[in-house]
Amino acid sequence: MNKENEVVYDVIIIGAGASGLVAAIVAARRGKKVLILEKNNKVGKKLLATGNGRCNITNQRPTPERFYSHHPKFVAEVLEGFGYPEIKKFFRTVGLELIEGKEGKVFPLSLQAISVVDLLLFECEQLGVKIFSECEVSHVNKIKRGYEIHHALGCEKVNKVVIATGHKSSPQLGGCGLGAKFAQTLGHRIFAPFPSLVQLCSPVKNLKKMAGVKVESRVKIVVNNSTIMRQGDLLFTSYGVSGLVILDISRWAVNKLIHTPVVELEIDLMPKISCEQLCAVMRKSLKKKSPKPLPLWLEGFINKRLTLPILEPLGLSGKCVGDLARETSLIDAIVDQIKAFVIPINGSRGFNGAEVVAGGVDTREVDARTMESRLHKGLYLTGEVLDVDGDRGGFNLHFAWVSGIRAGRSL
Q1: Over the stretch 331-368, which tens digit does the pLDDT of each residue have?
Q2: How far apart are CA 210 and CA 119, in angstroms?
Q3: Exposed (0-12), middle (13-18) or buried (19+): which is 77, by Cβ within 10 Å?
């Protein structure tokens, strides 16, 4: 550790995640002496877990509308000039080749997240970047010339500091809100964080009947008189709903839950067939005197474990096909249940289950070209600590890389 009033490093970066590692590499390539302080015992823990261990490293189309912030103009300015080709070029400089997948997703050619971490770490070592792991920072103080960083191994004085701590998502992988706390202590405004890309919880009592069922669905939620709609795989669970489509729509559900105790999701359980087509197919299957129970009949169209949750609210679970044939208008009600299955949501799996966090440092107080604080010269903020979050599919990592590169260049 440095001696009293001695500045040993040009830059201290708090956090050895995506944006922190990239900022360190870019700054060190420009001749800066860089120290990274990492609270975990390993570098890049969250990176290792992304993409189910494959690391969805970026997206081929990282357009501003795939990101969310109280001030969207900031995101557009940060991303300007940093599309997929620029990120691909950067990773080639550390020896990592990329492969393109579905939905514009991009992965390391090795399909291993460990490759990303290993190559970034090697580049840091080659450039002389020092990394202290298991070194949690407790305070960041503004002093007359620069900053004083108090951490588990002592105290450092430095002219420039980068807060690249991430946020509260996945605390089991080291996620925490310390970065936002440091920024707030230094005078920055913080938008209250909430989980995004997270599983949702429901108070419905018969969830156990549906648990384990996975269906392609179209899910809607109404927010401020606007309908948000996403489509993809949905998984019913013992606590509520999960799956890719739920992660995609969770941001709006969780945000709405801040203001109301329960929100409703409207689920189309058969999005590839229209109401009219489904009605026609069902009517053709009816036999006037058939004793076949309606739950068994409905199995011909949909997963067995969904039949009772569809029929019971209509009072039809004890009926037979013959009853339906005599009163065919009931088919419309069954189809409505399938095409607009409503499930109440009263919570989420929280930061533990979240892939990212919405909210964070007010971006009006950060220069989009350099990631430098507008309140304090020499203070930089990158990645998830900022009030920026993106869709699933590599967008959040793309923002982390870009903000890290911008900070590294300006350092």
Answers
A1: 999 999 999 999 999 999 999 999 999 999 999 999 99
A2: 44
A3: middle
- In tens, the pLDDT along 177-200 reads 999 999 999 999 999 999 999 999
In a domain, 57, yes or no: yes
* Three-state SS at 199: coil
CA distance 136 to 126: 24
Range of the domain at 256: 200-270+345-350
- pLDDT tens figures, 305-337: 999 999 999 999 999 999 888 887 899 999 999
User: How many residues can be counted in the chain?
Assistant: 411
The pLDDT assigned to 45 comes to 87
Average pLDDT, the chain: 95
Pick from 118, 104, 131: which is nearest to 34 by CA? 131
Could you say which of 331, 350, 369 is where a domain stops? 350
Output phi, psi for 232, to 5 deg: 160, -170
Domain count, the chain: 3
d(CA 4, CA 157): 8
Q: How far apart are CA 360 and CA 93, in angstroms?
A: 31
Q: Side chain identity at 286, as an amino acid letter?
A: L
